[in-house]
Amino acid sequence: MSVGIQAFADLNSWSNALSELGLVGLIIIPAISLIFIALYALYFGVYGERKISAFMQDRLGPMEVGKWGLLQTIADIMKLIHKEDIVPKAADKFLFVIGPGIIFVGSFAAYAVLPYSSAFIGADLNVGLFYAISIVSLEVVGILAAGWGSNNKWSLYGAIRSVAQIVSYEIPAAIALLCGAMMAGSLNMQTIVQAQIQGDGLGFLDYFLFQSPIAWLAFLIYFISGLAETNRAPFDIPEAESELVAGYFTEYGGMKFAVIFLAEYASMFMVSAILVVMFLGGWASPLPNIGPVALYDWTSGAAWGAFWMISKSLFFVFVQMWLRWTLPRLRVDQLMYLCWKVLTPFALIAFLVTAFWELYVGRW
Hints:
Elements (H helix, E strand, L loop, with lengths): L2 H18 L2 H6 L2 H26 L15 H11 L10 H16 L6 E3 L2 E2 L6 H9 L2 H11 L3 H32 L4 H6 L20 H15 L11 H4 L9 H26 L9 E2 L2 E2 H4 L3 H23 L7 H29 L4
Antiparallel strand pairs: 1-2, 3-4
Helix pairs in contact: 3-4, 3-12, 4-12, 5-7, 5-12, 7-8, 8-10, 8-15, 10-12, 10-15, 12-14
Protein name: NADH-quinone oxidoreductase subunit H
Keywords: Cell inner membrane, Cell membrane, Membrane, NAD, Oxidoreductase, Quinone, Translocase, Transmembrane, Transmembrane helix, Ubiquinone
Pfam families: NADHdh (PF00146)
């Protein structure tokens, strides 16, 4: 039985086993992934970035609340929850309130189609990649509503900058992802992962990144575009503190500020997860079989899949944090030049070469 067929068998047996458990199997166990997302965004993402930035700047970071400052993030969350909900007098109340909600939904709704393992996916849509790209784009509407509704010039400038940046960088990002979709022949994210499993035990050598001479370019373009879409440095001009205070969320505080903040961390993981699914085998083990040492076989399975998927994605979240605290911010003109005159043309080249390669050469 091929690995792809085995994966479908795992999925079916897992689903049947869950349905037999009743309420626990149908609601509580599937909610584990949502709990992980909430824990990551609420705690590990924030605490991790504080510690990583402190390490890079030769300081300690949070140390006072709990051992190694482990409870500092929880203390901050409690503070934000207890803050008074203030809406500026001159603001458009409807847009001001609904903006953070749209940003939050746009960031977290895309998690529904992420394949965490062969037997663990929220919604196995045949247009999963299209859905993920589309629903993440919803953030633009929330950002514009937040910036416009604040009735503040800094917020409006930040919102317009952010919308221009996200809409521009979605073009090279989408073209780069189409390269992976062409190689798999599907928009289903579970199928895209299974297309990177040949059953020969070669591990990472079966990933799309190593199966085409141009895949590395699409991989790089999507990662750079993903940084811009999440407003991370060096593309953080929408919230440039030295120019716009905090950009489109200057007027926000309390829970509304926390929601916007958490949506950014959710988007960081989402961008990393899509990158892993499209080019790095998703939940597939990277370890190859070496003679009698069957590393690939030993590290494959439903539970191992979730481990590899989350580990690979968190590595690229770490890289995003690393770049934020390393690179200086680009100017607006430099940001647009990079998108329209560098990334978009090279993304089109990668698309055409991938199409030619898949049509006339195929996989190595």
